[in-house]
Design goal:
The chain is an alpha+beta fold and 577 residues long. The protein is built from nine helices and 36 strands. The strands form eight sheets. It has an eight-stranded mixed beta sheet, with helices on both faces. The protein has a four-stranded antiparallel beta sheet with strand order 1-2-3-4, with no helix packed on it. The protein has a four-stranded antiparallel beta sheet with strand order 5-6-7-8, with no helix packed on it. Pfam families: Peptidase_S9.
């Protein structure tokens, strides 16, 4: 029996009382310094930041800017401004239309509401949890996600359904945790049915009732449909219909079609160069880039949004080997050093520093869901870097920095490899006499929690944000069923014992390092109960643990919520002795 299971009910008066008590304690210890830090952090989070981009036509991109001016731009023209208390979180290319899709959410909640924006500025609401609007045979269609209740056809959830008009046209046989993506080319439709983050089935046809399976395997994405030929990516290769025309030696992050050529973004030496190929698969060029975050093409124009550790973003348009910068923002002078560590495998990290004798090293990791930690402009860590701390960003198994095999080596029954990798970086910092602050959020919170239990001697202080910590009940909390393909099903004996063996919540022990746990009461992706239960149990064991429950969600919150959250994080790190 789990004595803290009541904390899963956020409406329980005992849960509310627990949150209020813990926030008061944290406020007493960190509140004064947090208030001092807040104005500078608010300034940082009010700076523009690009959350999405696609090519509207050959001359202009659509750009979603986050920050004080949370708005959508068509070229230089503002076409949408988020209403008060809401944040625009996604922009959608509406296929077979000149309309633009915009999704908004309240304080970072995953419960999005999507709108259609016409070229003349008219706004039409499509509804809650609607994604990827498109037109097919002149009828408006979209994908609707059922994460919190069953779909109208009575199927299990969470799952997707495809609507055209008011009718469900696809998805009745989708299983919980499966999701779809769609792209149309006139009256030709392609649909990718994904199971977790790595296995997909590609279908195509002239209608939903005539879809035929084209291919299946790992990491499939549709690129283009030219003169009856379908071009698609499958793992680290590109196919023209079923013929493999490109086999990359590096992990592919994305491909854009420029009609006569293909632009292929890969990960090479932990950066993202562009490789250019003819439609026949012959390599014709290469460009160096630090980190391309978004890339999309229309006709012969290739639009890119890129970032690095030294500038926040640059938007550019490339036409026939000539590039022009459309927009650029933010410069930061920080020393970046590539670090290599030999563990079970050769590991890489980025060490960011402005001091030769740092007060401490924030060792940051994630290690899961094929997410790569690549060069990215420092946000709240700018304050810590300016104060004399260093930041070590770690590339661990479970990510995608070295391809799908690297991901597989850190998922399911290989998950402990990720904690071992993280410990190697902590051990390196310790061996050099440094103070280690282990930090991670979401799946990275699981990483820090598990590593702290297994290697407490390597950590001086730990920061665990919006975490997944109860590995035996994660699938029962909010949208946890989506993660079964990554972690393994706790109801399956094949995985249950393994999950139990590293579950941070179940393996809590006494005398752990000083720990700061934070979550958001509006987080409807990772249930706040993970953090609440962990803090309550750790506190009962006598550990020095602090909990902060913000009014934020899991993903993009408003600048005020983010600044408030990280003011307490930094205040805690400064207190780490």
């Amino acid at each position: 029996m789990d004595e803290f299971e009541y904390l899963e009910d956020l409406n329980d008066e005992k849960t509310r009382s627990f949150i209020e008590k813990e926030n008061r304690k944290t406020e007493e210890k960190l509140g004064k310094r947090a208030k001092e830090l807040y104005p500078r952090l608010l300034e940082i989070y009010n700076e523009p930041y690009i959350l999405g981009m696609f090519a509207y036509d050959e001359n202009e991109p659509v750009i979603l800017l986050y920050g004080e001016k949370n708005q959508v731009l068509l070229g230089n023209k503002v076409i949408y401004i988020s209403p008060k208390d809401y944040v625009a979180s996604s922009v959608w290319k509406v296929y077979n239309s000149k309309e633009i899709g915009v999704s908004v959410e309240k304080k970072g909640s995953d419960k999005i509401t999507t709108f259609l924006i016409s070229p003349d500025g008219k706004t039409t609401e499509l509804g809650e949890m609607v994604e990827s609007p498109f037109y097919f045979k002149r009828e408006l269609c979209y994908i609707k996600s059922y994460r919190y209740s069953p779909p109208p056809d009575g199927g299990e959830y969470p799952a997707d359904r495809v609507f055209c008009g008011n009718e469900i046209v696809y998805g009745k046989d989708l299983k919980p945790g499966e999701f779809v993506s769609i792209r149309t080319f006139g009256d030709f439709i392609t649909l990718i049915r994904s199971k977790g983050w790595r296995y997909s089935e590609l279908y195509a046809g002239e209608g939903f009732d005539s879809l035929k399976k084209i291919d299946e395997g790992e990491v499939i994405d549709v690129i283009d449909y030219i003169q009856g030929n379908l071009i698609y990516q499958k793992n680290d290769s590109v196919h023209l219909d079923k013929k493999k025309i490109i086999k990359s030696d590096y992990p592919i992050l994305g491909v854009s079609s420029l009609k006569e050529t293909l632009a292929v973004e890969v990960i090479k030496d932990y950066r993202t160069p562009l490789l250019f190929y003819s439609i026949n698969g012959d390599k014709v060029g290469e460009e160096i880039h630090d980190n391309i975050q978004f890339m999309d093409s229309e006709g012969h124009s290739l639009f890119m949004v890129e970032t690095s550790f030294n500038y926040k973003f640059k938007v550019s348009r490339r036409v026939k080997e000539k590039s022009e910068t459309i927009m650029q923002y933010g410069n930061y002078d920080v020393k970046v050093t590539d670090i290599y560590v030999k563990g079970d495998v050769l590991l890489h990290g980025f060490l960011l520093s402005k001091s030769n004798n740092p007060k401490g090293v924030i060792v940051y990791g994630y290690g899961g869901f094929r997410i790569s930690l690549l060069p990215s402009f420092p946000m709240f860590t700018r304050i810590l870097l300016d104060e004399g701390y260093s930041v070590l960003i770690t590339n661990l198994r479970g990510g995608y920095e070295n391809g799908e095999e690297w991901h597989k080596a850190g998922m399911l029954l290989n998950k402990k490899n990720v904690f071992k990798d993280f410990s190697e970086f902590l051990r390196l910092v310790k061996s050099l006499g440094g103070k280690t602050i282990a930090m991670g959020g979401s799946n990275g919170g699981l990483l820090v929690g598990a590593t702290e239990n297994e290697y407490p001697e390597l950590i001086d202080c730990a920061v665990i944000g919006h975490p997944v910590l109860d590995m035996l009940r994660y699938d029962k909390l909010y949208v946890g069923k989506y993660w079964v393909e990554e972690y393994g099903d706790p109801n399956d004996p094949k995985y249950r014992d393994y999950l139990l063996s590293y579950s941070p919540y179940h393996n809590l022990k006494k005398e752990l390092p000083k720990t700061f746990v934070y979550t958001g009461i509006n987080d409807d992706r990772v249930h706040p109960a993970h953090a609440l239960k962990y803090a309550a149990k750790s506190e009962k064991l006598g550990n020095d643990v602090m909990l902060f429950v913000n009014d934020s969600g899991h993903a993009i919150a408003d600048p005020e919520s983010e600044a408030r959250e990280y003011s307490y994080v930094i205040a805690f790190i400064e207190e780490c002795k």
